[in-house]
Amino acid sequence: MPLALLALAIGAFGIGTTEFVIMGLLPQVAGDFGVSIPTAGWLVTGYALGVLIGAPLMTALGTRVSRKRMLMLLMGLFIAGNLLSAVAPVFGVMIAGRLVASLAHGAFFGIGAVVAADLVAPAKKAGAIALMFTGLTVANVVGVPLGTWIGQAAGWRTTFFVVAALGVVGLAGIARLVPEIPRPEGVRLRHELAAFRNVQVLLAMGMTVLGFGGVFAAITYISPMMTEVAGFADSSVTWLLVLFGLGMVGGNLLGGKLADRALMPLLYVTLGSLALVLALFTVTAHNRFAAAVTITLIGALGFAAVPPLQKRVLDQAAGAPTLASAVNIGAFNLGNALAALIGGMVISAGFGWTAPNWVGAALAASALLLALVSGALERRGTAHPVADHRDRTATGAAPALHH
């Protein structure tokens, strides 16, 4: 694999760390600024909203810039946002720093996925995308626990300085290792927007929202579920999240390897298995060992779907994939936010701590249904490409993204 993929993975590691590490630092941040923990929770919610807005916005703004230069600009934005968070004198400035950093998130992964796919042979595209996303999954195993420990030992501001330094390493790596890949001639924002007229692109994004909604419906409430139902001590939750992260890493790499061979069958298996495992979690949550195994499986199955889903969007929006790829990253965050909201609603309604697992199972099953519809449409040949032959000729569609 090209060294440029390592630079992209380092950037992904930094972005993944800054997204999730705040959850372990909320009490410290809340105490420092004199706000309640629910108020400090806006640092999480605000980041997710920033990803949703920033993915299409930053990608659209970058349609006239080379992909390498845009990746460098996005890493610069990420560094600035984390430095602003690190020095924030008041809570409002801290939120602003989080928003600035989040604007880079969706566009970085979206454009990075396109670049990663362009760096390798057609038969290795999903594996290349998976390698870049490994940075995000490893962040949950290494970056988040380490960042939390640094914050507890040296203050939360130190964590954000360290994350900003990671951004500098990622920026230098991109500048040095990522080649200048020319954009297809004549591609403009209207061509990028045309991808959203393709029913297969929309179905893939629906799978992303529902599939990842299934994962995070359960994982968002893992702490109270494991302490109140399984009987784990509070201190054990960190290690359970590490198991979830290890599952993410393994599933992501395996999904990348298998997606290049049988993309749609892989989606059927992972989404169907995810729905089943989430449903079983309502039972296994009552046993410590079974719960730990289930959490690992949820991470593995959920992230085994990442490379095929992202590659599916790239393939179906082949003439102008950048915006669609970035919006699909926003779809992951939309799924997280919606699932957390619905999971919280069923808990508040009195259905118990394991009720979000049923929500997750229903969402994953819905994603499987969309995958089956997508596959059926493809077999029947009724799902037409976004543009006709004349449009593809005009936009200079990249043949490397066709299969």
Automatic annotation (TrEMBL):
Location in or out of the cell: Cell membrane
Keyword match Membrane: yes
Broad class of the protein's primary localization: membrane
Superkingdom of this protein's organism: Bacteria
Keywords for the protein's UniProt record, in alphabetical order: Cell membrane, Membrane, Transmembrane, Transmembrane helix
Any single Gene Ontology cellular-component annotation: plasma membrane
Major facilitator superfamily (MFS) profile domain boundaries: 4-379
InterPro entries in the record: MFS, MFS_dom, MFS_Efflux_Transporters, MFS_trans_sf
Membrane topology field: Multi-pass membrane protein
GO molecular function annotations of the record: transmembrane transporter activity
Pfam family, one: MFS_1
Biased composition annotated in UniProt, kind: Basic and acidic residues: 383-393
Keyword Membrane: yes
TM helices/strands, residue ranges: 42-61, 73-96, 102-121, 128-150, 156-178, 199-224, 236-254, 266-283, 289-309, 330-352, 358-377
Chain residue ranges for the region called Disordered: 383-403
PANTHER family linked: CHLORAMPHENICOL EFFLUX PUMP RV0191 (PTHR43124:SF3), PURINE EFFLUX PUMP PBUE (PTHR43124)
Protein name as it appears in the record: MFS transporter
